[in-house]
Design a protein that fits this description.
Helix content is 47%, strand content 5%. By secondary structure, the protein is mainly α. The protein has a five-stranded mixed β-sheet.
């Protein structure tokens, strides 16, 4: 056999192998698609709705969709305040997981099957059986008003919208404390550091919140997030744990984030965000500023925030709460506010049965000598902006203002 024949034989063998590979790949994809379509159809065929408040749990399953929902939309909500047998959503979730083939479980997350699920909130009564004493009357009244306001807002503005993101992303900011069945959605610059300290104490990881350092809180990885659980674990906790969120006036939260990250030495925010911001928005920037990223001005920071083509992405410290915690898609049982942080937090600890000696910390986590970011401090920073920039910044946080009934600033 000469060299030409050897070359032709090798070439033909290679072509045959390639054709075989393409055939097998097409067959595998066809099988995977058929299996995925069957699973998706099972979601659609599981036609159920959650009952209105006051309906006995045994009547939870319904063959017709409620007013405003199509047959192919599922209502997903709930809290630890339901009673009776398992939530239908848990049943569906467990059923779907059990029916996935081993190959599917390895190749993709079951959560990806829930793209497009409809998640309206439902207002359930708070379980107040563990609250002792009558001193919480005013705090409780304010809490009920906040819950009712958010519920009405979501009902009005979100009644026909579908979820267009993976559930795993929805719960990625939620921390889990299993002992007292608490889910806490982290909103940076709204007391989150001290809340994590409290969760660590509740979980038995520390004896006192006052002995936990900033680095342990944020970098110690002592607390689990809800997205670290499997599908059944996520749904079980969403439907049985007390879910809380603490928010803050959006403009105060924004200014607080800027002061914390750009007015103090920072080995991450200066080189990553500062350099990009100065490079794009500062004319005739000097070499030192371009090199270190230090000295970002508030006006430059706002230009970055409002830019649809930002030179660097968003950050959780100034991301909208509506995109961090999805308050109209996840039914939060308790809505705390930074403006009444101490009393709200301590009332919540009573609700979940925390040890009587555990109180929410009063100390400031970092830069304790700095003046707290108040409404007056915010006004000083807003003076650096044009009227148009102030209006656009308010528009950026428009949903947060509406959802939590904050007064819009004078622009």
């Amino acid at each position: 056999m000469n060299l030409r024949q050897v070359f032709v034989s090798v070439l033909m063998f290679g072509v045959a192998g390639l054709l075989l590979f393409m055939y097998l790949q097409a067959w595998i994809e066809e099988q995977h698609t058929e299996s995925g379509e069957k699973l998706q159809q099972q979601i659609i065929n599981q036609d159920f709705t959650l009952p209105p408040p006051g309906t006995p749990r045994r009547a939870a399953w319904s063959r017709s969709a409620p007013l405003g929902l199509s047959k192919h939309e599922m209502a997903v909500s709930g809290g630890r305040h339901w009673w009776g047998r398992a939530d239908p959503f848990d049943v569906v979730a467990a059923s779907l997981v059990s029916q996935l083939s081993d190959q599917q479980k390895m190749s993709e997350s079951p959560l990806s099957r829930f793209r497009g699920v409809y998640l309206p909130p439902a207002l359930h009564p708070l379980n107040k059986t563990l609250v002792k004493g009558g001193k919480w009357k005013d705090v409780d009244s304010a809490q009920e008003k906040r819950r009712s306001f958010l519920h009405d807002f979501c009902k009005k503005y979100n009644s026909r919208k579908k979820l267009r993101t993976h559930l795993v992303h929805l719960v990625s900011r939620i921390y889990v404390e299993d002992r007292h069945k608490v889910l806490y959605c982290e909103v940076p610059k709204a007391g989150c550091s001290n809340w994590k300290r409290v969760l660590m104490v509740l979980n038995g990881l520390a004896a006192s919140a006052h002995n936990i350092s900033h680095d342990d809180v944020h970098y110690g990885k002592h607390l689990r997030k809800l997205d670290s659980y499997d599908l059944k674990g996520i749904y079980t906790r969403l439907n049985t744990y007390t879910k809380t969120i603490f928010v803050r006036d959006p403009m105060e939260r924004l200014v607080s984030a800027f002061r914390d990250k750009f007015e103090h030495p920072n080995s991450y925010y200066h080189p990553v965000f500062g350099r990009a911001i100065i490079k794009k928005y500062r004319h005739n920037a000097n070499e030192e500023a371009l090199k270190t990223g230090s000295g970002v001005k508030f006006k430059e920071f706002i230009q970055y925030l409002l830019d649809s083509h930002r030179p660097v992405g968003m950050d959780i410290h100034w991301e909208q709460v509506s995109k961090l915690c999805y308050p109209c898609l996840i039914n939060y049982d308790f809505i705390g506010k930074f403006e009444t942080l101490e009393e709200d937090a301590n009332y919540f600890l009573q609700l979940v049965g925390a040890p009587a000696e555990l109180k929410f910390p009063k100390f400031k986590d970092r830069h304790s000598s700095d003046e707290r970011t108040s409404a007056e401090v915010v006004r000083q920073y807003l003076k650096e902006l044009s009227k148009e920039e102030r209006q656009l910044t308010y528009d950026f946080y428009y949903l947060d203002y509406l959802m939590f009934n904050y007064t819009s600033p004078t622009v």
